[in-house]
Amino acid sequence: MLVEKHAKRVLLLMSPATYRAGAFVQAAQQLGLDTVVGLDLPQTLAELWHVPLGLDFSNIAVSVQTIVEYAQEKAFAAILSVDDSATELAAYANLALGLASNSPQASEAARDKLLMRQLMSAGGAPCPIFRSFWLHEDPDSIASQVSYPCVLKPRRLSGSRGVIRADNAAEFKVAFARLKRLLLSEGASEHETSILVEDFIPGFEVALEGLLTDGQLKVLTLFDKPDPLDGPFFEETIYVTPSRLATETQQTIADCVSTAAAALGLRTGPIHAELRVNEQGPWMLEIAGRSIGGLCSTILEFGSGMCLEELILRHAIGEEVATLEREEQAAGVMMIPIPEAGILKGVHGVEAAMAVPLITGVEITAQLNNQLTPLPEGASYLGFIFARGATSADVEAAIRQSHQCLRFEIRRSIPILNAGRNK
């Protein structure tokens, strides 16, 4: 069904727990857009919380119909998912309303790691050798079929949840059991759920933030990840930009991401890609049809102070963006890792962490007296540290110094004071 586009109305789809809501809503307001929030909530709770549009993201058909009916009265110029939770729903809704978007098939491929691997491999994007196995299969049998070191991955969880490295058969069986428990706790069926097992790729990681227009990639920035990500879990911490890699290497990375996006059928909007780089070149790990997660986008500015969310919104409603060039100043962010499971009882040293030169913000997002769960089961951070400076090296050093000032009191059986740590 086609409806007339309304140049000033956008629908932002998001989960209740997303970090991204404030940045997108604020950017929309600054652009003078009439913003509707579609939240993954039962309609009764949505009404209680005064959310205009309560949707069940797991029921795409019903949610699309709800959106279409809403749009009959007030048409949308664009429908965006601000995080992973609704990228497929956004694609189906945009298709139903005749709005520009990636296809539902491309959006599904960017969410399903097995489908992603299959399409990347067929499309010529370098990626690890992979196989899939069902949760109900015998782990002893699987352990004898795979190469080591390998990495076990859930097909749809994000943020490195459930991603575990195994160096031998014994470690594989432990990792398989742990991942199986996690997926079953999330409601998966062991006879209908498969996992991905792929060769571990040595090297260092980078993350590319980009924008697609008619299938053409514009690199917005390339982040270095200076902390090693070698397992057994893959907890991301520091991102710094601009990258310190050689220009030729950066171009090779961009070419690799372009190939991967084309293989999946991604053609428009933001993408966030994760890669490994070694002496053989770049290897695709993942590509998502959305922008960078958490509060990390806070450090990105383009042109004369345009934030990433404003850039994405302008692009989505069809406005021409005058410049996509990032500011020259170096910037970085640390996603503060959770060192151990327990109840957060105290946070100390924030003022000292803020006083470190080049630090522009320290935001603790974990709530006191709440349970903390580290990776691979956890899905959040303790908070974020932000910095800006003349060089990426200066920014990285400032973030590390600031992190060392922080102490997190986490109670297990008895109160324990945990010093800030680096990997």
UniProtKB/TrEMBL annotation:
Top-level taxonomy: Bacteria, Bacillati, Chloroflexota, Ktedonobacteria, Ktedonobacterales
What name does this protein carry?
A: Phosphoribosylglycinamide synthetase
Q: Which PROSITE patterns match?
A: ATP_GRASP (PS50975)
According to the lineage, what is the superkingdom? Bacteria
Stored Pfam families: ATP-grasp_4, LAL_C2
Gene3D superfamilies for this protein: ATP-grasp fold, B domain (3.30.470.20)
Q: Which species expresses this protein natively? A: Dictyobacter formicarum
Coiled-coil intervals? none
* InterPro entries for the chain: ATP-dep_AA_Ligase, ATP-grasp, LAL_C2
Q: Does the keyword Ligase apply?
A: yes
User: What does the UniProt keyword field contain?
Assistant: ATP-binding, Ligase, Nucleotide-binding
**Residues of the ATP-grasp domain:** 117-317
